Amino acid sequence: MSAFLNVEQSLTNRHWVGPGPESDRLTEAMVQETRLPHPLARILVARGVPPMEAASFLEPTLRDLLPDPREMLDMEKASTRFLAAVKRRERIAIFADYDVDGGSSAALLMVWLKQMGVPPTLYIPDRIDEGYGPNVPAMEALARDHDLIVCVDCGTLSHEPVAAARGADVIILDHHLGGETLPDCVACVNPNRQDETKDLAHLCAASVVFLMLVDVNRLMRSESLKGPDLIAMLDLVALATVADVAPLIGCNRALVRQGLKVMGRRDRVGLRALADVARMDQAPNAYHLGFLLGPRINAGGRIGAADLGARLLSTDDTAEAEALAARLDQLNTDRRDIENRVREAALKQAEERGLDAPLVWAAGEGWHPGVVGIVAARLKEATNRPAVVIGLDQGIGKGSARSVNGVDLGASIQRVAAEGLLLKGGGHKMAAGLTVEEGKLEAAMERLAELLAKQGAGTGGPRDLRIDTLLMPGAVTTDLIEQIEQAGPFGQGAPAPRFAFPAMEITGARQVGESHLRFSFGDGLGQKRDAIAFGAFDSAIGPALAKPGATRFHLAGRLEINSWGGRNKVQLRLEDASPAVETL
Fold first, then answer.
1. Under 8 Å CB-to-CB from 259, ≥6 apart: which residues?
2. pLDDT tens for residues 183-196?
3. Residue 299: φ, ψ to 5°
4. For 421-435, what is each residue's pLDDT tens digit?
5. Mean pLDDT of the region 535-542
6. Could you give the count of Cα atoms lying within 13 Å of 252 in the half-sphere of its Cβ?
7. Residues 228, 112: contact at Cβ < 8 Å?
8. Distance between CA atoms of residues 441 and 446, nearest Å
């Protein structure tokens, strides 16, 4: 296939790939049958939506898409035991993971239980001292003082720690890949259990918790009892879904769409305080959840106190929320500094090892375990390959891994662990964690690369940049962007559409901050639009577009509405550019 707009090699060394003739034909048919704008029709075609389903796709509802909780194995056992504990006013503990999904899952239960007059105990392990998931000392201690322990976003592989909780019942609400056997507990509700037959693997842990509460509320209604308002808690589910990089397909679209509406009301004091310190000045969208709110909540578990995020999300005290939000904001700043140092070292090491293999990996002594996951994500984005980054300490490496679409990383890491090359490892398709002895590191990574290669990792070049369609500046309006947003929310598994603008004149280019670029672009006929290119001066884009009297450029990026000073303006978030060839 020839390069889109003849861009064989852009300023970031990317090869532009556009839609083919079949996509063009289907798009025209979509426009004819639905009367939708051409760019929106193009997006629906790319998502595989037929014309007769376009209307329902653009208006996803929980009524149509939310699964029956009882479809999941062990759900009836979990909800029945949980409700019994509430009725008997038993002592309930919540054991949660330290990331956004874990914190949101814990907050869902905490808010629900507090409204029912049964405040629980929260326990989140320290990332460095205890590591991921339940551990024997913690579970023994919780079991001594509690009747029920609910493990959220963890526990599926924790056979020994769950067995150590003698005297207490344990419920597991998780989504990480399960093993051949499950821990001995009252219930293990997990869409990624090996014996689970329903197609719900895309759910994050918070969605599993939400579905259990849906079932609990239903049980209460059958007894003429009223439970807390679950719709008001969907902001937590949306946050977890986006921040945990769950694919925005099926019911996840409806959960996030409705959750964003709830978040927009600013009723939850913790999220309101966090949005304010993050300087969010417009209605929340998936980008805000993934890149503004999520990283700040994660910062507590990465380099601060592990329970800060869950406490922020569950508090109803404004002063406490503001204090927690300010602390998380500062921790996020500190995290970025640590991340930058590790990222530079990891990228240098990975480049020396080679970026063309099925797996890109790096390991370093003293690398903070709280940032290796973010750095792995950066390597994955830069190379379009699964990436693993490992921090070594006294002969033991703890690492995080991130994958690309179509490559099940969690299952492969779990297999390497089963083969004895890892001390432990697991996760889900797109993200996983591992612990490895330094002496087995090279062999483990070699074996992992071998397994990933069998799934096709490393076959796609990192230079491809997929373009959805061509636009001209005059066609881009706030109305069009709002129509395009109906196909969202956009994120993992449903990327925001990328548009190309051909042979644009660049005006008013100026550097902002350390490495960003603001400019305007137009077609030379009077139609201009604004653009922002983050990190432009870390690549060839900044110097090229900022050069006075620069040539015309093809531009590629995402469209958004920039709200500033009470005004909404169209803005292009530039991702790539290429000098326009003479024929254009």
1. 234, 235, 236, 237, 238, 239, 241
2. 999 999 999 999 99
3. -60, -35
4. 999 998 888 899 999
5. 92
6. 27
7. yes
8. 9
